[in-house]
Amino acid sequence: VWAVLPQANDVWFSTGAGIERYKDADFQLTFFYEKLLPVLNIPDLYHLFAGMTIPLAEWGTLGVSVNFVSFGETVVSTDAESSTNSNSSEVVGAISYGTKLTPKTSIGLTVKFFYSDLSSGASTGGEDATTFSYAFDVGLLRKDFLIRDLNAAIVLANVGPSVYYTDKSDQDPIPLTWRLGLSYEILNTLDHRLIV
Predict the structure, then answer these.
(1) pLDDT digits (tens, 9 = 90+) for 166-176
(2) pLDDT of residue 25
(3) Which of 3, 5, 137, 186 could make an SS bond with 157 (beta carbons 3.0 to 4.6 A apart)?
């Protein structure tokens, strides 16, 4: 090591092999709003998200998020002369935790609680078509998988019980999903980094 230079929350090391940077992770806050189907210009059809990551030093990272989707107003006609209006929406709150098991293997877990409101008393003869439930996601990341600079991740999402809206005998499973991701670092220099 030729030199050690602190820069704000970072520490830079100049060594015979190059320059290394140790970054002290910061809290991060993310927020976004998007219109769904903007070409239709429906004002109550939108998506909101807010999330925060909290670094826990060598213990890993904690995440908290809230996801809200408004599906807009639905008009339900019961016969030729009568109809009712209903708003539909869904909100998901999540707590996530991720940490390294080894220098090349990391694991993460997310626990989600969701409330889904398809219609409040419109289409079911006065009954609310709502549900509240939970699910969890688990993921595994492996660096240098099979060959150097190849990373592989696998995620199992939405593990949880079936849900129902009005009739307990008519339950539907939530969409259990497997995801696989691969990345390969082609180039890594002081000025450029290319990952496929």
Answers:
(1) 777 888 899 99
(2) 66
(3) 137
Q: What is the b/e burial string over 44-73, where b = at least 16 CB atoms within 10 angstroms of the residue's CB?
A: ebbeeeebebeeeeeeebebebebbbbbbe
**Among residues 184, 112, 121, which one has the least CA distance to residue 147?**
184
| Alpha carbons 138 and 106: distance in angstroms, whole number | 11
User: Taking all residues of the chain, what is their mean pLDDT, rounded to a whole number?
Assistant: 86
pLDDT at 127 over 70: no
Backbone angles phi, psi at 147, to 5 degrees: -130, 160
Token pair for 144: 């240098």
* Rounded CA separation 112/120 (Å): 23
Polymer length of the chain: 196
Nearest to 87 by CA among 116, 55, 48: 116
